[in-house]
Amino acid sequence: xxxxxxKDKTTRRDFxxxxxxxxxxxxxxxxxxxxxSQMNPDSSVKALASIEVxxxxxxxxxxxxxxxRGKPVFIKxxxxxxxxxxxxxxxxxxxxxxxxxxxxxxxxxxxxxxVCTHLxxxxxxxxxxxxxxxxxxxxxxxxxxGRIRLGPAPTNLEIPKYEFVGTDKIKIG
Amino acid sequence: MSEYTSKSEEKFQPVQTNxxxxxxxxxxxxxxxxxxxxxRMFRHEYLDFQVPxxxxxxxxxxxxxxxxxxxxxxxxxxxxxxxxxxxxYAFESVEKIMRDxxxxxxxxxxxxxxxxxxxxxxxxxxxRGLYYGSYKEPRQLMWIIGIVIFFLMMATAFLGYTLPWxxxxxxxxxxxxxxxxxxxxxxxxxxxWLWGDYxxxxxxxxxxxxxxxxxxxxxxxxVVFHVIALHIVGSNNPSGIEPKDTRDTVTFAPYTTSKDLVxxxxxxLIFVAVMMYAPNYLGHPDNYIPANPMVTPAHxxxxxxxxxxxxxxxxxxxxxxxxxxxxxxxAVLGLLPWLDFSKVRSSVFRPIWKQCVFLFVLNFFVLMYIxxxxxxxxxxxxxxxxxxxxxAFFFILAPLVSLVEKPLPMPQSIHEFEDWKKQGKIKVFQFxxx
Lengths: 173, 434
Ligand code: HEM
Ligand code: FES
Known about the structure:
The complex is a heterodimer.
Chain A: H1 12-37, H2 43-47, E1 51-54, E2 63-68, E3 71-77, H3 80-88, E4 109-113, E5 124-125, E6 133-135, E7 140-142, E8 148-150, E9 162-165, E10 169-172
Antiparallel strand pairs in A: 1-10, 2-3, 3-4, 5-6, 6-7, 7-8, 9-10
Chain B: H1 27-35, H2 38-46, E1 50-52, H3 61-80, H4 90-99, H5 104-132, H6 140-162, H7 167-178, H8 187-195, H9 202-233, E2 249-251, H10 252-277, H11 307-315, H12 319-331, H13 336-339, H14 351-372, H15 377-404, H16 414-422
Antiparallel strand pairs in B: 1-2
Bound molecules: protoporphyrin IX containing FE (HEM) and FE2/S2 (inorganic) cluster.
């Protein structure tokens, strides 16, 4: 169609190619975005963000497990020895150094996600070499502050957002 | 290249956009074949096709795999008509399939056990390739397509296993999807995106169901590529020598087809025996306990066919490196055509490589055992040694053996190879007969 032999000159065909390619790229981007985004948690899932737990019946040394966002949360009323043990640890011995103080609002109550930071199994309470939790899946040991001490897990058990409501309730989330 | 000539200077060339014709058939078949040449193609690729006459039963596994895949799809579609991908009803709907649906028990046991037998067949198929050097020039791409199929099979089987929503389903899904959390920076958001929630739950189950179907059909597509490539490069054979004239080959139908049929039937008989007499032998009893997000089973193990790779994952004490090692332990197979550069294909003539392949198989079973054992003490140590050997096989043994090994004297052709076999000059791996 075009009679030009000059390669440096922009032809009408070059122009059309550039314009359609640009519009096409924008279109593909606009189509991919919702397709990818629909897979993220939806509004109803995000809305279930917090729960309240009654802790008045939990005795010293006892641990309860509640489900929050589909994940178990351990609420542990620690004994004097357990608190002491958690506080005495030398930070140099820790894989993910963190003071016990920084992990609790009230030393008597430890609130952690019951999800092993390795690959997500639920650790078992009162087991393992450090008297905290032991994950049966690939052998991670946590101490009485929920800190990783031994095994493949990279970090300490996560602390969810929570607050005490009055004296006998905890609000998680 | 965008040089345009004006109409006046253009040299005309004849063009034919209408290619109707050329069929060897007449009548209705010919009429169709002239317009859609699939009948001719089928005859050319599946009936008149020449294959080496020395093929052993190891060459039946390709056909066996195809049958398994078709049966998986057939039973899968049947299950899909009764299964409910909802965290509340999934477990119940599977139990309903087992108890109430007409022949539901049979269809589900068939699907479950076919998945296992699919992997048995694919492992033997891969072993055949390793032993007879089928990955070498010119079949490298077939080998790589095969590895892609293997990855897709693993994905489908994993997704399918989550569907009954038992304890193993749930915790297997949790552990495996969490592998993505090892990715630096984006890990956590990727996992949340995969789940559609903050944990494995209803949203995940629903999409796993969709993907289980989708990937199963993707496998069919990739298998088509695998077969197209096969019909370009042709089959390898136990001698590793390319056919030269008709003394070396037979026609696909009826010779190879009848042999493959025997292979398929024997395989399916074993499958039916296991399915009927020990339908849960290859599974795990914990999967008959409904999923419980509050408790992980004391000893979680994947399906038997994942155990070797699970052992590799666990033998590395670092989370990210464990995942990398597991994925690369399979991907590394794709480099074998270049890591093993010996000119001789078949292990029949490669005394050292043959030993290496047997050691590799032994090591595979060691890893499989370790993957099912607890990750502690002596098991951990053996697992680490076996993992090291896995990689050493590819990166050290393959190139080293290619360099130092002196191949045995070889026949000139496949028919001479057959004569040598009859004279007992060489020993070839065979199931039974010839
Ligand atoms: C590549 C081939 C396939 C493999 C390896 C495979 C594997 C599996 C496995 C391991 C299970 C779990 C069985 C159990 O423990 O109960 C399963 C379940 C299921 N599969 Fe497949 N599958 C394949 C193809 C398909 C196809 C093509 C469909 C449907 C179109 C399908 C539909 C289903 C359904 C509905 C279930 C859940 C019911 C049940 O658990 O018995 N599958 N699959
Ligand atoms: S999931 Fe806990 S150690 Fe792997």
